[in-house]
Amino acid sequence: MELKGKTVADSLGEQLKARAFACKEKGVTPCLAILIVGSKPDDMYYASAAIKKAQSLGVDTKFVTMAADTSQEDVLKELDILSNDDSVSGILPLMPMPRHIDPEAVRAHINPKKDADCLTDQGYADLFTQKKGAKAPCTPAAVMEILNFYNIPVSGKRAVIIGRSLVVGKPLAMLLLAQNATVTVCHSRTENLARVCREADILIAAIGKAKFVTREFVKESATVIDVGINNDENGNMCGDVDFNDVKDIAGNITPVPGGVGSVTTSVLIRNVIESAESTL
Ligand code: NAP
Fold it and tell me: Using a 6 Å cutoff on CB, does residue 162 contact ligand 1?
């Protein structure tokens, strides 16, 4: 089965609209603030998709853009303003920012209660200790939404993640563990990578290398989730998985585009609504 993200996002959207409406009835309109430093096309594309999604679900938006040469001090000041603005429920600074801005400083200036993509230390601590109400970064949370929406068994299953970044691989390992999967996290130093991957009931690729995962990585009937966003040799968007090579051997597979990426903005908006709900 092709695990289409749009179906998941549509279903989530219905629930989120109702929750945003319920917040408004109680006097709080959820609001997402996006901060962009510079004007990278990818950032602009993601921001406009997130704003469109938010507005379609009844969530207000605030879009702050700053020139690429804005000083770190001014960027941090802006984050402090958003962090203290009662009308803002969730903050998303798009990372990475220009080199002269320290990402650690950015993370430290986000109010953890308004941390829309789980970028703060507090956000990670809550996730790793499985604190009630903990949020998760949007991309790994989107992976879990897809697995759960399509009723793919997770508990007791062997999950293998390729990639150990703080944005995807590590938090995803925590989310899978919380649902009782047996989790292996692979990386560039993993020996016999294809053999380890072939043990997976659920194989997740978050590598950043176009079409890296071919059929020899995949056990017959396994579920393959492709987090990657790359360009192929013709400049077309593709994932970390060679979809055409793998689709016959996999039991389930997410496409790129149209898979994980389609669910990410919905999860972002859910995080914003949850922050708003926590203030009611
Ligand atoms: P990242 O920070 O560059 O991490 C890549 C990971 O892949 C690292 O852990 C690296 O291992 C591992 N890796 C690289 N080459 C490998 C190899 N040959 N064999 C095994 N492991 C290898 O990337 P990221 O931010 O996690 O993103 C991963 C992919 O997901 C990218 O394509 C990105 O565009 C995409 N992404 C998608 C979304 C979405 O919404 N769909 C969101 C975020 C990211 P080492 O740690 O050993 O270097």
Answer: yes
158-162 and 182-186 beta bridge pairing: parallel
**Confidence class of residue 222 from pLDDT cuts 50, 70 and 90?**
very high
DSSP string, 1-51: -B--HHHHHHHHHHHHHHHHHHHHHTT---EEEEEEES--HHHHHHHHHHH
Calculate Rg over the CA atoms of the chain.
19
Contact 145, 119 (CB under 8 A): no
Residues 127/168, Cβ–Cβ less than 8 Å: no
The residue type of 199 is E
- Whether ligand 1 lies within 6 angstroms of the CB of 163 is answered as yes
Task: Give the per-residue pLDDT at 220.
Answer: 98
Tokens of 64: 């702050």
DSSP 3-state of 191: coil
Q: Is 213 in the pocket of ligand 1 (CB under 6 A)?
A: no
Size of the chain in residues: 280
Distance CA 235, CA 65 (A): 28
**CB-CB contact of 215 with 246 (8 Å):** yes
Query: How far is the centre of ligand 1, averaged over its atoms, from the C-alpha of 131 (Å)?
Result: 26
Q: pLDDT tens, 68-78?
A: 999 999 999 99
Token pair listed for 18: 């109702």
Mutate to test the pocket of ligand 1, among 118, 143, 184, 187 (most ligand atoms within 8 A of CB): 187
d(CA 227, ligand 1 centre) in Å: 9
